[in-house]
Amino acid sequence: MLLAIDIGNTNIEFGVYDGEQILARFRLGTNRDITSDEIGLFLTQFFSINAISREQIEDIIISTVVPQVMYSVQNAMKKYVGRAPLVVGENIRCPIENRYDNPREVGADRLVNGVSAFARYGGPLIIVDFGTATTFDVLSKTGAYLGGAIYPGIKISMGALFEKTAKLPRVELVRVDSAIGRNTVGSVQAGAMFGYVGAVSGIVAQIQRELGDPARVIGTGGLAQLVGQQQPDLFYSIDRTLTLDGLRMIYDEYRSREKA
């Protein structure tokens, strides 16, 4: 079995694979001060609930955009699983042509998403990942990573609104039917959803114009489902395990090269 770990700014996501099948996954909030023992205890509980023993884990692969927690994560894997992990961009390469001006500036998760999405959907593609920031990643017909855009995540935008206003309440993000709110909560929800979906749609439309060829739009990340409900024609597909699946694909490619 393979343990795949994606460390993002908001969550650390764990997934266990048996071949190409994901058996179980869970998320842990990203805390830059988390200890290896805390990670190990959560992981031990996760294994226990899903009837997985650590002896079944043959390898571990990690992608991260939060280097501050890597020491704790790597130590936890060695201590509680007995394996030293493979880390994308360090001791395992990401098999994608990267055309960024400075390839090292691209977050590992964005490249991993590109590997997964191209294998599944072909190209050209626009991948919209709804995380702490909303990222737009563009792949060519041949699967080359062309670049993209980064936009503040909706939770960051809403947090700034509440911090800078005295009377506006925090509200739940939900699908809304009208841009005309009939009360303060409804008005904030309408502004949040229509404004955010409008921004996402506008960036996607601009990328489509610049690409020239029609690209499939793939959504992933925590709020992709909600945005898809608000604007059903936006996404070709919503893929909730895109990053974990990409890690599994990168691992499989690595093992194939080792055997060759």
Which features would summarize this protein structure in a list?
alpha/beta; 5-stranded mixed β-sheet; 7 helices; 10 strands
Q: Helices, strands, pairings?
A:
Elements: E1 2-7, E2 11-18, E3 21-29, H1 36-49, E4 59-64, H2 70-81, E5 86-87, H3 108-121, E6 125-130, E7 133-139, E8 145-152, H4 154-164, H5 184-211, E9 216-221, H6 224-230, E10 237-238, H7 242-259
Parallel strand pairs: 1-4, 4-5, 6-9, 9-10
Antiparallel strand pairs: 1-2, 2-3, 6-7, 7-8
Helix pairs in contact: 1-2, 3-7
Describe the protein in words:
It is a single chain. The protein has 260 residues and is α/β, with parallel strands linked by helices. It is built from 7 helices and 10 strands. A 5-stranded mixed beta sheet has the order 3-2-1-4-5, covered by helices on one side. The radius of gyration is 19 Å and the shape is globular.
Short synopsis of the structure:
The protein has helices at residues 36-49, 70-81, 108-121, 154-164, 184-211, 224-230, 242-259; strands at residues 2-7, 11-18, 21-29, 59-64, 86-87, 125-130, 133-139, 145-152, 216-221, 237-238. By secondary structure, the protein is of the alpha/beta class.
